[in-house]
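Appendix B. Chain record.
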Amino acid sequence: MTTAVVIGSGPNGLSAAVRLAHAGLDVTVLEAADHPGGGTRTSELTLPGVLHDECSGFHPTGAASPYFAALGLERHGLRWLWPEVDLAHPLDDGRAALATRGLRHIDSLGADAHRWRRMFTPLIARFDDLVADVFRPLVHVPRHPVTLGRFGIQALAPAMWQTRRFSDEPARALFAGVAAHAFGRLDTPLSSAVGLLLTAAAHAFGWPVAEGGSAAISRALTAELAAHGGRVRTGIRVESLGGLRDLTGAAPDVVLLDTAPAGALTIAGDALPVRVRRALQRYSYGPAAHKVDFAIEGDIPWVNRDCGRAGTVHLGGSAREIADVEAATACGRMPRRPFVLLGQQYVADPSRSDSTESGAAINPVYAYAHVPHGYDGGAGDATETVIAQIERFAPGFRERILATSVRGPADLEAHNSNYVGGDIAAGAQTAIQTVFRPRPAVNPYALGIPGVYLCSSATPPGAGVHGMSGYHAAEAALDWLRRR
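Structure tokens predicted for this chain:
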């Protein structure tokens, strides 16, 4: 029987494993941590009974993923839950821009509502067609060339150029905040791509959470793998390809690495062709996250009450302010008021909360600030910065904090070695690297070693919990097996 080993059990590693198992291979997933999931894990980080997502917390690309949909993961307990408002972006003047499925609450954009509708209605109407092409490798025959071409023309523009379409700050800030998910400058070519795709996803599919935490995604994929004879072994760190024989009892026919390029360099080592090794050594990593999880009593006291209905809240002020702080972090400077992404997953999923003996709700709050790559300016200082940014739009938040859990860039990398320097986006989102990640190649998953492939978010279509990088890498491995 043909055998496969997948190193790493993030959503891409598990998706690759499931695809190989469906094809009849005997699949083993090896995971260094004690629990599978990579970026899709959930833990009681602050207080007992209060559930926090350890990395990924909102899943627009998961709900839109063609592969997840084809697997029918609801059979294994995965259930998407939506807040009333998918995304809110408060401003200092008390207004807040809102994004929801079906363009509801578009009146929050004021005079720009019609411009926003005109910008996104074509993308929403053809979103399934767009995803069918965008979630594939760069080199492919487009299934929907007109839709892809229209998106590509818009995506080429810098994000800040797109904000010029709007006359007032709510729409400008809302788009800039979504574009900032790329962890990079907003004044460079292709910096619109993430903003366009994720905003269209918000209106087409929403930004749901997984009931019970993001770990539900890992559990569903693991169950699907087990149903087809595959297995996951945890607590096993792979140091080299040569050591796989000792770990699994025999040399596998194919190996897939759900690792950052740095991990592939370590594991594959001198077996990599010189050209591939040099390309992976040149791979650049982007700004980092400084993550703070809070357990709070009650809800966040937002100035704009609509923010209390949102699953995700962007804290960054105006579009110009967001662009300036993103440029600073990309250049290695810590801004005074960094962009903060805040999650209120409990708004859609109350099962994550607990209560005191008196019955008062204890709710989990998820937040991370964009900070420079490898930032080590002091965990306490950065945490105070995150709290101050929340207080800016919700005075009195500090008094509601019952407990905190902090992971700076070094802690994130120690917890998951794929987060090099605290980069949770799996690589810098420069224009060149966005197109040619992890290296310029017809087959970006191949590592130049027969049967060995990279399947992480460092490969197309990039970051996000969608499993498509793993799926395409598995397809590349299966194609090699058919041809050998």
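Further analysis of this model is presented in Appendix C.
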